[in-house]
Amino acid sequence: MPSYTPPLRDMRFVMHEVLKVADEFKAIPKYGDADADTINAVLEEAGKFASEVTFPLNMSGDEEGCKLNKETHEVTTPKGFKEAYAQYVEAGWPALSCDPAYGGQGLPLVVNQCFYEMLNSANQAWTMYPGLTHGAYAALSTHGTDEQKQTYLPKMTSGEWTGTMCLTEPHCGTDLGLMRTKAEPQPDGSYRITGNKIFISAGEHDMAQNIIHLVLARLPDAPPGIKGVSLFIVPKFLVSKDGTLGKRNGIYCGGLEHKMGIHGNSTAQIVIDGASGWMVGQPNKGMQAMFVMMNAARLGVGNQSLGLTEVAYQNALAYAKDRIQMRSLSGPKAKDKPADPIIVHPDVRKMLLTAKAYAEGGRALSIFCAVLLDKAHYHPDEKVRKDSDELLSLLTPIAKAFSTDNGHIATNACMQVFGGHGFIKEWGMEQFVRDNRINMIYEGTNTIQSLDLLGRKVLGNNGATLKKFGKMVAQLVEEEGVNEKMAEFINPIAYLGDQMTKFTTELGFKGFQNPDEVGAAAVDYLRVAGHLVHGYFWARMAQVALREIAAGNTDPFYQAKLQTARFYFAKLFPETATLMRTARSGSKVLMDTDLALA
Hints:
By secondary structure, this protein is of the alpha+beta class.
């Protein structure tokens, strides 16, 4: 059976020693009381909930899955899921970072982000039920009317109601301009919604009193394509004016998908049969409102893979220390045993350190993005809000795609550490691999994230936002450029930072002549950018560790951080050279292949 220990020490290191989040929050009046002690205390209790309440349900939930009653269209979640959710609600966890105006606790988003990392390590399938609610909450709080906010947000804040987003249809995935779901205006100001949606995570379940579906649909006079899409609130149960639940709405689960992983989450086929809905935002402007939810979800999906990377690493490390197999190439290490623990073997260490480096680098990126989101929304300085929003826009596809790709690499590596046992269900490792695999597909596949990064976020503004991140790298290089002890961390990012300008300009010029050049290079480009971002955070973490050691701190945590940083820059970061070469190889070898693909 697997185990899980919340990585609170590393979270505290990133938040308080590297990013100094409490100092950032002092500049935001809303978060003036969010000091380090408060954040630490909340996360310690959050870690207990994740490890003691949801983690024990992970394997059993995977085995049992969800069950649909085809007559009533009701879905039963695995044993214990509903009770765990009741504990979650009773303890006030849904309200952690929500607005006090709707019953929230008003804590910074970074606290919720760290909590959700732990929940994802413990049980991604369970976590997706409350997790999607945060995105729906964000969309309604930004674009909903006052009446809509007062009707729905308090119940979503308390956790009594959950939320979903209904985008995908059987004939269209990310290309939402092709959707067919219709919305017909009614005399009372509501809309009659008709259509079919698929792949709706947590689309039907027995854990909450009501489910608030945010549904994309077309008005009768809508222009074609993405510019003719509107967003609607379509609740499972209609809500009376006094806030009580009324009759069942015409939206129900027509089937459950049989999936590779996340069996404990109900991925629903949703039938919308003349359901009552209410528009969010302006007609034909639905994507503006939905993007609030989608961007939150993209950060959330990256966090899902971060959680799985961490728990897979923890279990692979424990196994590698216990499992004996052969002798070390440099001579016996466990002379009292017939063989050495497999952790003595270089390639086993490489697999473990790969997972550790991607978990800790991903955690720094995740926390940094959460702080940017809070600053973009609530910082009193307009320039800080604008700069934070721009930088977050650049980093979001990286946080989603790079983190989930790394989760795939890491969970597979950790399963490999187990050898044959990794392939056997009882050890839990194969579930981490299966559960993670969906994250590379969710919320726009990683190829789409790559196109978004290179085509829209970088080339779309001639690299202006990329240059802002480049200035952060340059500032760190300037701070530590003459520090010999930092050279092994600073020189690689300084070199790559210089290369990125030329690399980006070259791809932009080729893309201007032939747009397929952008499509051919985008995935490699995102991975290069991801390493630049991870490299920056690893250099900052090494900087803090070196300072603590120089000050006489003997905590082995700091030496361990340096060792992991050295591994990252020596064994993982150099991938960028190959990626830039393959990105530059162009589109011809891909597109001039009609015979090969005949």
